[in-house]
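Researcher: Hi, I'm a grad student and pretty new to this. My advisor asked me to get structures for two proteins we've been looking at. I'm not sure of the right format, so I'll just paste the first sequence and hope you can take it from there.
Model: That works fine. Here's the first sequence with its C-alpha cells right after it:
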Amino acid sequence: MQSELWRILGIDSRDGGKLVARLMRRGLLLREATTYKGRKTYILRYSDNTRAPINISVSLNPVIEVPCFTCRHISRCGIGGYYDPIRCPLLTRYLLLMNARRA
C-alpha cells in the first residue's frame, strides 16, 4: 500500500507522490486505487517493464589464476597448519605477480 510505504520510508505523502509520479513516467511503476483502513490509497506494483529477464555474464578468468583453486592441499590448508597460506610459495609468487601487474 502506498500509505504504508510512506510510513516505512518516513516521508510525507507529497514527497512520496512526486517519487511515484517520476517512476510512473519512466514506466517502472503502476498504481491501482483501493480503500485501506477506510481511506483511499493506492497499491503500488512493478510494471511489466521491470520484470524483463536480466542476463548477467560473469568471467571467472581472474579467479581461476589463483593457485589455491588447483592446489591438491586446499582441503588441509589453514593458518597455523602445515599447509599455511602465509608461507605458501605458490600463493606468494601469485600475489607478487599481481602486485607487479598493477604497478
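Researcher: Oh nice, that was easy. Here's the second one.
Model: And its structure:
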Amino acid sequence: MLDILTEPGWVIDASSTTRDAILEKLVLTMAPRLGSVAPGKVLQAILQRERQCPTVVSQDLAVPHARLAGLAAFYVSLARAESGVEFAPGKHVRMVCLLLGPEGNQKQYLDVLAAVLRLFQDKGGKLLRAKPAHAAALLSLAKR
C-alpha cells in the first residue's frame, strides 16, 4: 500500500522543541510538492486535528495526518527529535511522521495510514537511529 506514496523521502532532524514548530517545519519542507495547497492551510488542518484527537501512537511516535482538497497524491515526511518533544499533554515522542492525502476515498486513506504504522512498528528503531539519507532510503524501500 505504501507504493502510492509520492517520494517518501523527506527526513529532518528537528532542533525544534515544540510540537507546532516541528509540524510547521515538516509542512514547509513538503510545501513545494503540494501544488496549489497553501502551507498555512495544511498546518491549520493538522493543528486542528491534533487539538481534536492527538495522534501519539507510541512512546516514540506521533503520526499526524490529514486529508485535504487539492492534493492529488499521498505525501509523507519524518522529523526526529533526539531529546523528544511533548506532542500531547504528558506524552513525549522522538519521531513525528506527517501523512497528507487527498480528500475522498477514506478506505484508501485508512489503508495508507495503517501501512505507515506497520512500517514504524517494523523499522521504527532503525529510522530513529539512521542518518537522514539512510532513513529516507528506508522509507523509499518500504514502498516496494
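Researcher: Is there anything I should tell my advisor about the second?
Model: You could mention this: The two ends are 9 Å apart (CA to CA).
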